[in-house]
Amino acid sequence: MAGSSHGHTPAAWTGVTIAFIGFCVSGAFMVMAQPVGFWAGMAIVAVGGVVGWVMSAMGMGQPKDTHEQFQTALAESRAASAKS
Questions:
Q1: Contact at 8 Å (CB) between 5 and 67?
Q2: How far is 66 from 55, CA to CA, in rounded Å?
Q3: Overall pTM surpassing 0.85 (yes/no)
Q4: What does the pLDDT look like over 6-62, one tens digit per residue?
Q5: For the chain, which has fewer Cβ within 10 Å, the N-terminal or C-terminal residue?
Q6: Helix (H) or strand (E) holding 19
Q7: Taking a C-beta distance cutoff of 8 angstroms, is the pair 3, 67 a contact?
Q8: Residue 20 near residue 76 (C-beta atoms within 8 A)
């Protein structure tokens, strides 16, 4: 996945950042034994997923054909190195 820049997009970074903040909020309220705050944090986690999905749909995510291009380039590279 590293060769295809998996996750290195504004949509991924924004969605994960929002979800992480929600996780921290939820964890803090769980320790304080406040169920309403816990569920508010879980709602923030869900919002992070929705925001990431919407941003990806708006074109700020990784293009769908990126993985196909990477696999093609990898196969060509391996074929070239096998001939050498």
A1: no
A2: 17
A3: no
A4: 668 888 899 999 999 999 999 999 999 999 999 999 999 999 999 999 998 888 877
A5: C
A6: helix 10-31
A7: no
A8: no
**Which tokens in the block code for residue 10?**
């504004």
Gap between the Cα atoms of 45 and 84, Å rounded: 50
What are the φ and ψ backbone dihedral angles of 9, each rounded to 5 degrees? Answer: -135, 160
Residue indicated by tokens 């070239």:
80
Token pair, residue 18, equals 């929002």
Q: Please say whether the beta carbons of 67 and 41 come within 8 A.
A: no
Q: How far is Cα 36 from Cα 26, in angstroms, rounded to an integer?
A: 9
Closest CA relative to residue 55, chosen from 25, 18, 20: 18
Q: 79 CB contacts (<8 Å, ≥6 apart)?
A: none
| 54 token code pair | 């919407």
Q: What one-letter code names the amino acid at 73?
A: A
